[in-house]
Structures are given as C-alpha cells and as structure tokens.
Design goal:
Order of helices and strands: HEHEEEHEEEEH
Bound molecules: guanosine-5'-monophosphate, magnesium ion
Number of strands: 8
Strand content: 15-25%
Strand order of the largest sheet: 3-2-1-4-5-6
Radius of gyration: 16 Å
C-alpha cells in the first residue's frame, strides 16, 4: 500500500469509528509496537472526537527475533499490570488496535481477556488481515486491507525491528528472512 492509499483508507475508517462510537467513549488499546503508527493516524482521523475517548497500550508478543513464523504462546504485558491485561477495561467499550491479524491467536487472546475483565464491549480494529492464515475463526470488526500470505513490513510493522518507520507497507522478499533465520546479515 502506498502512503496515499493508507491515508485514504485510515481516514475513512477513523471517520466511520467516530460515527459508530459517537455516544460510547471508547477505550482505544493499541498493541505495541506494531500498531503505534496506524493508531496515531487512526485516532486523529476520528473527528469529531468521541467524548471521553482514552488511549492505552499493551504489549503482546508471539514472535522471536528474526522469525517470520509464530513461536510459542502469546504473552501479554502492559506498562502497569494490575489485571491480566494490565488495563482498567471494566465497563469500557474497548477498541483493540492491531497492526495485522495473521493466525488470529494474539487478537483472540486479548479480546477474550478484556471481555473476562468486564469490558462492556471489545471490538477488533486492524490495519491488515491475512484471512488465509487463520488457525481460529476470528473476523476483525474493522479492517483496512486484506492481504495474501506474504510478510508485510512498514507503517509500524517490522522485521527484526527494521522497517517500522517506512511510510508505506511493503512485502519482505523471502530471501531476506531466509538469510536472517540462518543467522547472517539481512
Ligand atoms: P497472530 O497471533 O494473528 O498470528 O499474529 C499477530 C502478530 O504477528 C502481529 O501483531 C505481528 O506482530 C505478527 N505478524 C504476523 N504477520 C506479520 C507480517 O506479515 N509482518 C509482520 N511484520 N508481522 C507479522
Ligand atoms: Mg502485533
């Protein structure tokens, strides 16, 4: 996706969310670090701002350094953990912001925890979705772009912490991660 395509779609989605949440003061929860760039643009596109909207972040990690396949189970930690998700979600209308929904495991765990912790509602907003990769049934409530099974980088998405600050979304060439996984320079 080019910068222009991202701007257009993210603005459109922000405006839709502003309408859908006009009377519900959402708690917007971004997953670190990948969703930060998307979330920054999205919340600024939510005009007029839903009254009482708050922003929070949590960290969910299911990848090892330099790996493009899931490893192990999803671990969650927030900056001030007081509950399982670390956030005060009870009674709040949560919008979980993801960079990408791949197998669906990360988002499913986070949504389940927020509901268990008493969120009034918990919906999933994602920049990208790879429907062909799902291992569990999970349909994002809001999605900017569906993509095929390729490794996306840029606009917050990284490979081994690289490429996050690219202003567009690109596809990593398979030879890049094949080399990295064998321990050499990308
Ligand atoms: P899931 O739990 O849905 O399998 O994985 C979600 C997480 O995997 C994303 O938040 C992201 O960190 C990582 N991920 C999955 N696919 C991609 C991809 O194409 N590019 C990047 N950079 N990360 C991905
Ligand atoms: Mg992520």
């Amino acid at each position: 996706m080019t910068e222009a395509q991202l701007r257009e779609r993210v603005t459109e989605l922000g405006q839709q969310l502003a309408v859908d949440y006009a009377d519900r003061a959402p708690l917007v929860v971004g997953t670190l670090k990948g969703a930060v760039v998307f979330m920054a643009d999205l919340v600024r596109a939510m005009q007029p701002l839903p009254d009482g909207m708050h922003l929070e972040f949590l960290r969910a990690s299911s990848y090892g350094l330099g790996a493009t396949e899931r490893r192990g189970s999803v671990t969650v930690c927030a900056t001030a953990p007081t509950k399982a998700s670390g956030l005060a979600v009870a009674g709040r209308h949560v919008l979980l912001i993801e960079d990408i929904v791949d197998t669906g495991c990360t988002a499913a765990v986070l949504l389940e925890r927020m509901r268990a912790e008493g969120a009034a509602s918990a919906r999933l907003v994602t920049l990208l979705s790879k429907p062909s990769r799902r291992v569990i049934e999970l349909a994002p409530d809001y999605c900017c772009f569906e993509i095929p099974d390729r490794f996306a980088v840029g606009y917050g998405l990284d490979f081994d912490e690289r490429f996050r600050s690219l202003p567009y979304v690109g596809v990593l060439r398979p030879e890049c991660y094949a080399t990295a996984q064998s321990g050499s320079e990308v």
